[in-house]
Amino acid sequence: MRIDEIDKKLIQLLSDDGRISYVHLAEKVGISRVAVKDRIHNLIEKGVIEKFSVIVNSEKAGKKISAFFEVEVEPMQLEQVAIKLANNPNVASIYQMTGPSTLHMHVLVEDISMLESFINKELYSVVGINRIESSIILKRFKSRNGYKL
């Protein structure tokens, strides 16, 4: 699908404020409200826009500890382990990475004791995990939500 400058501007405006009305979008990009609606519908249909969502500040919602994990997994167990971990409510995101069957995982928990419990009960008990490395975020300078055009 070809994304023109108007589509890029619409996506950027929606990224900044997902609740912006078609009328306001139309005013900002210089096309009709109906044309805005059609373009957004087309972007959704083509899978460029996957969904609209709310971004929650995890710290203010009680998840004070944010940690990243590099999880090395047995190659034959990779998919099963990834699915199991992805279903855990503390796992914010999980990706398969290049390298020796590695998963990169972002975890959000309430406090250090919850992180310890997650590691001991949720990670060490998973069959197929060979090695785990973790890093706790001390300070966030930038966080990306979605792709910026």
UniProtKB/TrEMBL annotation:
Q: InterPro entries, alphabetically?
A: AsnC-type_HTH_dom (IPR000485), Dimeric_a/b-barrel (IPR011008), Tscrpt_reg_AsnC-like (IPR019888), Tscrpt_reg_AsnC/Lrp_C (IPR019887), WH-like_DNA-bd_sf (IPR036388), WH_DNA-bd_sf (IPR036390)
One of the record's GO molecular function terms: sequence-specific DNA binding
Cellular compartments per GO CC: cytosol
| Entry protein name | Lrp/AsnC family transcriptional regulator
Q: What is the lineage of its organism?
A: Bacteria, Bacillati, Bacillota, Bacilli, Bacillales
Which biological process annotations from GO are given for this protein?
Answer: response to amino acid
Species annotation: Oceanobacillus bengalensis
* SUPFAM superfamilies on file: Dimeric alpha+beta barrel (SSF54909), Winged helix' DNA-binding domain (SSF46785)
User: What positions does the domain HTH asnC-type occupy?
Assistant: 3-64
